[in-house]
Each structure stands twice: as structure tokens, then as C-alpha cells.
């Protein structure tokens, strides 16, 4: 599959889908509290996407995934399946939302604290969020994709955390996952040159311990091998003529200032 350059009409549709995905994360925030199950969060998000937004939750039945969102708690790195276990005070959880509207996808995720969390957990989430924005700030026409991953890895490892390498960002548009792949670590290949009209996600997964992960028997849930905490943030980006546009920016969100 080759990289698609979005037309002006397609970009408009990507903006709508991105805004809707961001709105789901805004809507669900007050529901993330001790005692709630991730299955309940999934149901609330599903109903909101389908009934209020008149859109489609992209994960549902995607390659057999059984739920409408991904919910990854504590040592779960990504692709956690919502279930009946209740969140407790001190947990951290990533909710990953992808919405399809008029045939186009908007994909975003963020971390939530369940009640008061540890200093370690807060620091991990802060560094992960900052690493996302360090990657975003690299995006612009003429930049090589490899520059994004190199910047993220350098920042994360400077703070004694590790970057997961088995999963990456991806092109997005009519398809959930398109070319190019956006690695979050340095390689010897500088990668593709970014062009205006490209859309893709940046979504670093950062572990408090070692970078190695394993897949649980359910075929979806990815966890840290050493059971250390993991965090992830994600945005969908558009490359513009002068830089970039964050299509999934939340209303209350401002990039880190230092």
C-alpha cells in the first residue's frame, strides 16, 4: 500500500473524524473513577459514538477485536480489551478511541489517573505526553520520518524510560492503518520525506522499566514483560504546507511549554 496524499475534501473529512474522536475522550473523563469497569467505559463510549455522533467505533470487530475502545491499565501497553475488572484508586489507564465518520478515521488516545496515583505513575505519564509532543513538533514538509522517532527515543531514554518497538504510529484515512509506519525510535534508515497532505498518527508507548513486551493468550492484550507500568498518548496529524495540524486536539489541551 502506498502513502496517500489527502485532497482538500478528504482533509475536511479527516478534521471532522479527528474532532469527534477528541470529543469522546473529553466526554469520558468524568466517568474514569474508582469502581467503574472498563466494560462500562466501553459501553458509554460506544453509545456516545453511535447515538450522539452518528459515527462508527472503528475497533469493534476490526480483525476480530470484540469491543469499541481499547483500555490498557497499568502494565498493559496497548490493545487492552475492556472487561469486568473494576478500576481502583492508583491505577493508570489509557483509553484509545478511533471514530469513523463519512468513511474517514480519527484516532487518538490519552492516559487517565484513577484517583490519586503514585509519583512514579505521574512522572511516567508526563514524560510520555512530552515525548508525543516532541515527535509532533518535528512534523513538517521535507522532514524525514526517522527524525520523529529519533527525537522521541532520545528524550525518553534521557529520563531513564524505554520506548516499545513492536508497535508504531501509522498512516490513516479511509483505512484504519495505512502507510507510512511511524516508528518511535531511531533506525539507520532516515525514512520517507514528509509531504503536505499526509495524515498519520504518532503514539509512543513508554515503559517505566525495560522495553520488552509480551502478548497475552487473548491475542490482543500487550503487557510489559517485567510488569512495569506503561503509558501511551496518541494524536492524528496532518502535514501542512508550513508545518502540521493536530486533527485530534482536545479543547482543553495545550502542548507542554518546556
In short:
The protein has 258 residues and is an alpha+beta fold.
Structure explained in plain terms:
With 258 residues, the protein is α+β, with helices and mostly antiparallel strands. 27% of the residues lie in helices and 24% in strands. The protein is built from 4 helices and 15 strands. It has helices at 8-28, 38-52, 119-137, 145-158; strands spanning 56-57, 70-73, 76-78, 92-101, 104-113, 162-163, 169-171, 178-182, 199-202, 205-207, 213-215, 222-224, 230-232, 235-239, 244-246. Strands 1, 2, 4 and 5 form a 4-stranded antiparallel β-sheet that branches. Strand 11 and strand 12 form a beta hairpin. The longest helix is centred in the N-terminal third of the chain and has 21 residues, at 8-28. The radius of gyration is 17 Å and the shape is globular. The mean pLDDT is 97.
| Class per helix and strand makeup | alpha+beta
Apparent shape: globular
**Order of secondary-structure elements:** HHEEEEEHHEEEEEEEEEE
DSSP strand content: 15-25%
Please report the distance between the alpha carbons of the first and last residues. Answer: 38 Å
Tally of helical runs: 4
Q: How many extended strands?
A: 15
Amino acid at each position: 500500500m502506498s502513502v496517500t496524499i489527502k485532497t482538500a475534501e478528504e482533509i475536511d473529512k479527516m478534521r471532522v473524524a479527528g474532532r469527534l474522536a477528541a470529543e469522546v475522550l473529553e466526554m469520558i473523563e468524568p466517568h474514569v473513577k474508582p469502581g467503574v469497569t472498563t466494560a462500562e467505559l466501553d459501553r458509554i463510549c460506544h453509545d456516545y459514538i453511535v447515538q450522539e455522533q452518528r459515527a462508527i467505533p472503528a475497533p469493534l470487530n476490526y480483525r476480530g477485536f470484540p469491543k469499541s475502545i481499547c483500555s490498557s491499565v497499568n502494565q498493559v501497553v496497548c490493545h487492552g480489551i475492556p472487561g469486568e475488572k473494576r478500576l481502583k484508586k492508583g491505577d493508570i489507564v489509557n483509553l484509545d478511541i478511533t471514530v469513523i465518520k463519512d468513511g474517514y478515521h480519527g484516532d487518538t488516545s490519552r492516559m487517565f489517573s484513577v484517583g490519586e496515583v503514585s509519583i512514579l505513575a505521574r512522572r511516567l505519564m508526563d514524560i510520555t505526553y512530552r515525548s508525543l509532543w516532541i515527535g509532533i513538533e518535528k512534523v513538517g514538509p521535507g522532514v524525514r520520518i526517522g527524525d520523529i522517532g529519533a527525537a522521541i527515543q532520545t528524550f525518553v531514554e534521557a529520563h531513564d524510560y524505554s520506548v516499545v518497538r513492536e508497535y508504531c504510529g501509522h498512516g490513516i484515512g479511509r483505512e484504519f492503518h495505512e502507510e507510512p509506519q511511524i516508528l518511535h525510535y531511531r533506525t539507520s534508515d532516515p525514512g520517507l520525506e514528509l509531504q503536505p497532505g499526509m495524515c498519520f498518527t504518532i503514539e509512543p508507548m513508554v515503559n517505566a522499566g525495560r522495553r520488552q513486551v509480551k502478548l497475552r493468550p487473548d491475542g490482543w492484550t500487550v503487557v510489559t514483560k517485567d510488569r512495569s507500568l506503561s503509558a501511551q498518548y496518541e494524536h492524528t496529524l496532518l502535514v501542512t504546507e508550513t508545518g502540521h495540524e493536530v486533527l485530534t486536539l482536545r479543547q482543553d489541551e495545550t502542548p507542554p511549554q518546556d
